[in-house]
Design brief:
single chain; 385 residues; alpha+beta; Aminopeptidase; 2 domains; six-stranded mixed β-sheet; 9 helices; elongated
């Protein structure tokens, strides 16, 4: 295979991306957001001759999409990557001063996921530089807000239709074909407010929430009995609890915010049935128990077959570039792949290796960024030929 990825150019490109503060303002109020990095990417895409569009999903929160138009009759492929990063206050390195040491580039977002985005950009550049026209279109989408609510990819997929997609999240050269979904659930127990001395009258909503917590522990044991081969079992945990007004008053309300992680095959309806069943059983065991719940946010799980064409071309590219087959893996976290998959488009994650997503120290292995670019270039040429 001809080496067409310029390693020095790719390293400089990644350094440029890491230097730009793109902390998500939905996570850190007042943070810079994605506007500056989107402007940089727009200029880069235009310099490559791509059909380029910058769209504000919300004020100051843009997507940038570049299209390398094919001659027609071929399959289309999207390379997707997010431009936002998480907060930096607790970092032990300078977050926006990319330092290279022992083959690793340090900085916020280097691993999650500007390294993967740079790999995709370099792959597209190599195809452009070759002068060879593909039959199918190649789209590179740099999206906002993946770290919070994924408004970027949700907006993108309102009108985008492709034959397959790769998200360049770090996967250590494995192909992620499945991941968990999640539901955020508010549970509220209702008591009866009374003076602290009036135990005959007062009903303690906080104490009643204890029964819900015990129910969650029992539910977790049941969930662990069913394990998905790639992502393991589902789970439920209590995240935030609040209630009560003052020491000498029985609390009439207690609120619990919980998270339920779903494995492929589980649905929102499954979560509804679990919660209804739990509350009903607690009511039957305690006539003073009164509670309700609400699913406040929901994201589906996803899974695609390794036999999909995009998976098989990634396998071929890995053999060609890396000399080994990738593993088909699942993820316990949620990714934008589900939004794309939800439109009936085969979508996987494939990217480089590193360490420290959301951590105090974050780095990406530069050689892996270069190799991921080579694999993606191979995939572009084969899939869109």
């Amino acid at each position: 295979m001809v080496k067409s990825i310029n390693s020095n150019e790719l390293t400089e490109l990644l350094k440029d991306l890491v230097k730009i503060d793109s902390v998500n303002p939905s996570l850190v109020p007042g943070a810079a957001g994605e506007a500056e990095i989107a402007s940089y990417l727009r200029d880069w895409m235009e310099s490559m001759g791509l059909e380029t569009e910058l769209t504000e999903v919300e004020p100051g929160r843009p997507n940038v999409v570049g299209t390398l138009r094919g001659s027609g009759g071929g399959k289309s492929l999207m390379l997707n990557g997010h431009t936002d990063v998480v907060g930096v206050d607790y970092m032990t390195i300078d977050p926006f001063d990319p330092v290279i040491k022992d083959g690793k580039l340090y900085g916020r977002g280097s691993f999650d996921m500007k390294g993967g985005l740079a790999s995709s950009m370099a792959a597209v550049k190599a195809v452009v530089d070759s002068g060879n026209q593909l039959r199918g279109d190649v789209i590179i989408a740099a999206v906002c807000d993946e770290e919070f609510a994924s408004i970027g990819t949700e907006h993108l997929m309102k009108d985008t239709r492709v034959d397959a997609a790769i998200i360049g999240e770090p996967t250590y050269f494995n192909v992620q074909v499945a991941h968990k979904g999640f539901a955020w659930i508010d549970v509220t127990t209702h008591g009866f407010a009374a003076h602290g001395s009036m135990y005959q009258l007062g009903v303690d909503a906080i104490a009643k929430m204890g029964h819900v917590l015990i129910g969650f522990e029992a539910m977790q044991r049941i969930l662990e009995e069913t394990k998905h081969p790639l992502v393991g079992p589902g789970s439920i945990h209590a995240s935030i609890i609040s209630g009560g007004a003052e020491l000498s008053t029985y609390p009439d309300r207690c609120k619990l915010e919980a998270e339920r992680r779903l494995i492929p095959g589980e649905t929102r309806e499954d979560v509804e049935e679990e919660m209804k069943g739990l509350i009903q059983s607690l009511k039957e065991g305690d006539p003073k128990f009164n509670a309700d719940y609400e699913i406040t946010f929901f994201r589906e799980s996803m899974e695609i077959s390794p036999e999909e064409e995009i998976c098989q071309v990634l396998k071929q590219g890995s053999l060609e570039v890396l000399g080994k087959e990738p593993q088909w893996v699942g993820g316990s976290g949620w990714m934008d792949t589900q939004i794309i998959h939800g439109k009936g488009i085969p979508a996987v994650a494939f990217g480089p290796s590193g360490f420290g997503a959301h951590g105090a120290e974050e780095w990406i292995d530069l050689d892996s960024v270069h190799k991921a670019a080579e694999v993606q270039e191979y995939v572009i040429r084969k899939f869109c030929a």
